[in-house]
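As promised in the previous annual report, we have extended the structural survey to additional targets. Below is the entry for MFS transporter.
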Amino acid sequence: MFSPLRHAAYRNLFTAQVAALLGTGMATVALGLLAFDLAGADAGQVLGAALAIKMIAYIGVAPFASALSARLPRKTLLVSLDVVRAGVAVSLPFVSAPWQVYGLMTVLYVASAAFTPAFQAMIPDLLTDEAEYTKALSLSRLAADLESVASPVLAALLLAVISYNNLFVGTALGFVVSALFVVGASLPALSRIQPKPFVKRLTGGLRLFALTPRLRGLLAISLATAAGGAMVFVNTVVLVQSQFGLSEQATAWALAAFGGGSMTAAVVLPRLLDRMSDRTAMVLGAGVMTTVLLAGAWVAVRYPVLIGLWVIMGFGYSLTITPAGRALRRSSTAQDRPALFAAQFALSHACWLIAYPVAGLVSAEADPRAAFLVLAALCAAGALLGLRIWPAQDPESLVHSHPELEPGDPHLTEEAGRGRGATHAHPFVIDEKHDRWPGSGG
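The corresponding structure token record, generated without further manual editing, is:
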């Protein structure tokens, strides 16, 4: 898995990603504590609104950023976005009202929404070997899982000696370190291949989602992922500090328990995926999260119980999210992959845009128990939709026909054929020669 780190430029970019993730993780903890400081028991509503702004920015900006990144100087773009994010982070300790939080977080999240697709779009150019690229995707997921453990633990330790506002300084440092490693990376020049028209680059990933059954199923499971995650990220601070009357450190340790469960799943998943399909693992994870949400409505009345629930929730969360990269890779060509990852980034965050406000508003207007139940229903709906939409039999190679092609067409002669005439089989993705899924009609 770690062989891509032998590539110097990728190693710099990966280090930059880890530094930014650690900073973002500390900001997540600090933002929850800031929301509680400003709104008390209604912190879930403030945090839910701030995170909804994040989702709106990600949905609206990511596809455009991916399309535009083919034209902009890569290093300048990434460094500029890191500088913007660092500037926002050092400003957050000085806010005194929720509207100021919303304004600053809008700037931060727009910059992050532009950074992530641009970062992802460079990796295939750095690692042209498909196997190495796949390992790089796994490393990115591992970094995200480590961040979900390390950042809350680091925040809990720092809170023993500093106030939560100083955590935002750590966030700024993370973005500065990220920028420095990007500056030190030797990035490839933009491809000389004529890019597709802007509209096609903008909508290409969405088209793949619309026409590929497994991707539609993946989107449904993303709704389940968001429902479980929103309960954790929005309402942990409310449960721990308002209902249980515990400290800021206790909030950070609860979030670390969730990250620990996620990390455990990431460790065992390679062996699990040798025995089960991506679809089975992801639906199983959604089922685990639904069960935890239902149980939480009745048993999450003490801190130790909440810790146990969050460990299990983190395990289910990782089951739903880690195999997604494999499904995306199977569903696209190298040329279309950046657009597909940008579309996944936007569409999955559209699911979070539904879940975050629900988690915050239901908790504030009713109570956390009601939020557990409503989000359990949302999680179950995503799991059942995914099970319904994603075909149980989902082989990589599919038999299909090309009646529009001449018998000597290179596509027919290059692929290992099966059958007669224009009918053959190969790993199937939607592209210029395959504009519909076999069996979808026509």
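DSSP finds 15 helices and two strands in the chain. The mean pLDDT is 81. These points will be discussed at the next consortium meeting with the crystallography subgroup.
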